[in-house]
Amino acid sequence: MARVKSESKKGILIKENRKRKRAPIWVFAKTNRKVRDSPKSNRNWRRSKIF
After folding, report:
1. What pTM was estimated for this model as a whole?
2. Domain locations along the chain
3. pLDDT tens string 1-51
4. Phi-psi region of 32 (alpha: psi -120 to 50; beta: other; left: phi over 0)
């Protein structure tokens, strides 16, 4: 990817990066560690592209 990015593309990438966070610890406890990731973080870098 190009090193110089437009502001709009940068904003989209930042938003996607924020979605990748793990679920909070209380979710682990409540679901007995069945849920590990947040529901929005199921995108794979190889399967689906942002752009």
Report:
1. 0.62
2. 1-40
3. 678 999 999 999 999 988 888 888 898 899 998 888 887 888 888 998 988
4. left
